[in-house]
Write a structure and sequence with these properties.
Length: about 230
């Protein structure tokens, strides 16, 4: 974990923990979503246009009923198993704290997220928010779970026997830490471009996946194949 990542967690963590007391949304889930949804194209947390210009840590669409600020940005959706590029209006705010508060209110205010509210098991909460339709990415829940476990985010939920928020989980020294994780191809929608969009923040970074896997050709991917994906 880099110093910048620790700083991001220790900035958003108190906001998420305070909101958990009001909304019932696990702080660990909120922080993991903020990490995933605020990344810039080069993987820096809290550095996306949405987070910097819109002060929004979450990609919540601005529907017609939304009366606050909004920002129009390019995004990617998985529709009928295919990753497509679209432009959409997203909710925008005056501060990250306002974004966190609205995130909790948004989830609490919609009946379809009922299973998320008050859930104390982070894995169940992550799967419930995906099942309720928050995101179209097929691995959204598992990515959130991975972030929570890797960075010890349950500490912000008040779980016992976990590191305190002031001392996040410390992994092995960076030179010893694997610079990639493995992924199993699940469908024809798992192209290098789609995986780069999902995990690296930009489809243009698909060549990094190719290089890490010995220069394999994109068209050679097959169901069940295990490939390496760079960590951002």
């Amino acid at each position: 974990m880099t110093a910048a990542q620790k700083n991001f967690i220790n900035t958003v963590g108190p906001m998420a923990r305070a909101d958990m007391a009001k909304s019932g949304v696990l702080a660990s889930l909120t922080i993991a979503q903020a990490i995933l949804e605020s990344r810039s194209k080069d993987g820096v947390w809290g550095a996306s246009r949405l987070a910097t210009e819109g002060k929004a840590l979450f990609g919540i669409k601005a529907e017609t009923s939304w009366k606050g600020k909004r920002i129009n940005l390019k995004t990617f959706e998985v529709i009928n198993g295919k990753t497509v590029e679209i432009y959409a209006d997203f909710r925008a705010y005056d501060s990250w704290e306002e974004s966190v508060v609205d995130h909790g209110a948004f989830l609490r205010g919609l009946a379809r997220y009922k299973a998320v509210i008050g859930e104390t098991d982070y894995k169940k909460a992550c799967r419930a928010i995906k099942a309720a339709g928050y995101a179209t990415g097929p691995d959204y829940a598992e990515v959130l779970i991975g972030l929570i476990e890797r960075y010890g985010l349950t500490a912000w939920d008040g779980v016992q026997n976990t590191p305190t928020p002031e001392k996040p989980v410390q992994g092995p020294a960076e030179p010893q830490e694997r610079a990639y994780f493995t992924y199993t191809i699940k469908s024809g929608a798992d192209t290098m471009w789609a995986l780069a969009c999902r995990y690296l923040g930009s489809g243009a970074r698909w060549t990094e996946i190719q290089a890490l896997n010995g220069g394999i050709k994109p068209e050679s991917l097959r169901l069940g194949q295990v490939i390496k994906i760079p960590k951002t």
